[in-house]
Structures are given as structure tokens and as C-alpha cells.
Amino acid sequence: MTDKLTVTVLGTGIMGAAMARNLVRAGHTVRVWNRSRAKAEPLAAEGAQVAGTPAEAVTGADAVLTVLYDGPATLDVMRRAAGSLRPGTPWVQSTTAGLDGTTELAAFAREHGLLFYDAPVLGTRAPAEAGTLLVLAAGPAEGRPRITPVLDAIGARTVWTGDDGSAATATRLKLVANSWVLAATNAAGEALALAQALGVDPRAFLDAVSGGPLDMGYLHAKSALVLDDRLDPAQFAVRTAAKDARLVVEAGERHGLRLDVAAAGADRFARAVEQGHGDEDMAAAYFASFDDEPPR
Questions:
Q1: In terms of Cα–Cα distance, which of 31, 101, 93, 38 is closest to 66?
Q2: What is the pTM of this model?
Q3: What is the structure's pLDDT at 274?
């Protein structure tokens, strides 16, 4: 079996476009589709084939990779592709769809005889572009050799969490990881906002914790985006962070947990979206602390 495949990428936003580029660089034939064709067109210059419909994109594909906004959007697109999907085709589903969303997608895969791989990723724009994402994956062992070239092209490491994608074990781990990442993002933004309000130089705060037990690279990375006004283009958008935060809260509620920090964080992201920061980096949740423009 050749390790050069025909791979369809459905969804060419921040993550999907980067994944498609890395698949092309790895020597695969790559077909791409996006609801807004303008977001897919630049990939043609890099060697990808831009399809006009999901059905056209998946025709004859050795593997399908979905990187769409959420579970409902993914299900809608796969339904539009259904007539051209070959039974037995591996489907690598990398959208953060949540527990219920992943269950619905797995049911669609069973209905159409697809090999379903629950495979969300950890990472943002930079690691996606570098092909160094961490892939969290679950799915049948017998099909893994067929998708290994795909996972190797988009990520530096794949962590297998189970043999049944419908059990959403990879999504469960992704939600746990997201709960920490989103909380850290909001905590960084609130610390910067409080510094501004108290007349403290935010960089003095960063210097004070630097190198100590309270320090972490993520704090400095997200703070720099705010302080240096580099929120656009987004590494990971506020709008998507708001969706992911809601999925974390819903997962907790489903299992009898009150995730107070996650719920407050979801509200902050939603408020930042309402303020017009939805397409900026999720660090822009910083603005949710202010009713008006923050002090300069």
C-alpha cells in the first residue's frame, strides 16, 4: 500500500487550511472544500484541488478529514457529501463537536459504512501551520495504517485513547484539556485588565512571576498578543473559544458537575463576541472586563 493518498479536507478555516497545506507538502493529493469558497481558493496555488461541493470533494477519496466549526455544521456537510462517500472510507473527524455532537457524527458514519475516527487536536494556528499539533484519536485499529500518513502530516504526535470512535474518548480528553486552556486564557486577560485598572504596568506583573512557580509560557504568549495589539490574525478565534467553552460546561452538567470557572469563562467569551471581537484571537476576551474601551 502506498503512503501517498487522496485526502479530502472539508473546512479550510484557521486549522483546516494549515492541515491541508501540510498534507500537500507531505506529497498527498489534497482536495479541499469550504462553505465560503474564497477561503479555499488560496490553497490552489499551493497544490490543492478546490472542489465546488462536498460531494465533489469526497469522490474517490482515500480518507476524509473534517475541520468545521461544530458538530451540526459537520453533520450538515457530511450529509451533502453522503451520495459520493464510499463505504469503508476512513473519516478523521477533527472538529471539537462535544459529546452529543460526536455521538451524532458516529451514528452517521455507521449508517454510511464509514470508518469513524474521533480525532480532535490540541494546538492553534502556529502548530497547525508547522504540522506539530497533538492529535487525540480514537477509532478501529484495523483502519489505523490507512490514516497514519494523514495524522503524521498534520501532527507531531498522536495519542490513541480507544478503539471505538463512537465512545468519544478522544473528545472527552479534548474537553478536559480545553477546560484548562480556556480558563488560563481568561485568567491571563483578567490579570492584565486588573493591572490596567489599578495603574500597574502589566509587564511589571509578567516580570514579577517570570521564572517562578506561577510562571508559564502560555501566560506570556497570550499577554503579548494583547499588549502588542497582535490579536489579528487570530491563533484561535474568540468565537470558536466561546463555542468550545459551552461544550465544556455542557459536558460537566451532563455528568452532574458545576464547572463555575468554565461557565464564567464561557460568558466572558460570549461578551467579547458581542463587543465585536469574535474574529480576533481568544486572548481578546481581555476586553470583556471593560464596559468601555480599556485604558491605554
A1: 93
A2: 0.95
A3: 97
